[in-house]
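Quick entry, no commentary yet.
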Amino acid sequence: MTSSDATALSTHGIDEAARRVGRSHVGDVAGDARVALVCAKFNGGITERLLDGALAGLDKSGIQPSTVTVAWVPGAFELPLAAMRLAESGSVDAVVALGAVIRGDTAHFDFVAGECASGLQRAALDTGVPVVFGVLTTDTVDQALARCAEGDGNKGFEAAVTALEMVDLLRKLPGATPARTR
């Protein structure tokens, strides 16, 4: 299943839910977040386009380029370790993992895509730092190219904005206070 207008949250859905409960939280874009972008070199032509989209999303959200870190890893399988290291460092508020795993004729896709997703989720849960999955998992190169084209549909752009929303939301939620705001 993919996102479409038929599955999108309605324009009044969040407000309606807030009226029906005691408390409701939603993240806005945290314009002061320090973000790391971890990029896979394998399928680098795709990753480069995702990176361009992510940087455009951060720029549009008011993030200063000097607060952004970019780290390059060999491939998608290595993204979780670098993401975990950055998340643990205390030097960033969010990590965005960017890469592309394109299905081929072997089971390689299944192992790499699944382990990458699991590792990135583990990094987020273990550290409490948003680690956003900006890794394309497609059947074809054409599908990957469509998801990293310039404009609104660039998944790197979406991943960067998601990271900023998560930073803001976690700052609003009760519980442990991020080290930066203590």
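second:
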Amino acid sequence: MALPEGAIDEVAARVGTSLRGDHNGTGLRIGIACALFNGGISLRLLEGALDALSESGTERNDVTVAWVPGAFELPLVARAFAEAGKVDVVLCFGAVVRGETGHYDFVAGGCASGLQHVQLSTGVPVIFGVLTTDTLEQALARSEPDDEGNKGREAAVTGIEMVRLLRTGPLS
């Protein structure tokens, strides 16, 4: 269910301070970790993100992409990006498609938990752009090129918004 139009403004009128990050990517340094396993999906997510970053004003020289073997390895590279202090946000892309064994649960859960730990321990936003789907068809639908519903595009916008939010008023 989407937030009703005007709801943020209505809440702002009822509180002392209402914070929200904007979508201006100018000057932001972006680290991107992409999984090679199911790499065709990762690439589609990355392309959606790069489109959104370009549209937001982020310069291509401010974007670094690191390729990792699979989704399970994303947290380690995300931590390396965050601890190096050279990026403002880390976007992580991959796809874990459910199979016939419990491997899916370990990979998807470990990846999500690891990425959350990195952002909480470093204070650098780490965006979970990893598709966890039951079928390849679902992953393809969520990574459709040139589509507003591309989850890579959404992850890039979320990343920019989180950096800007954390740099505003009482949060900075």
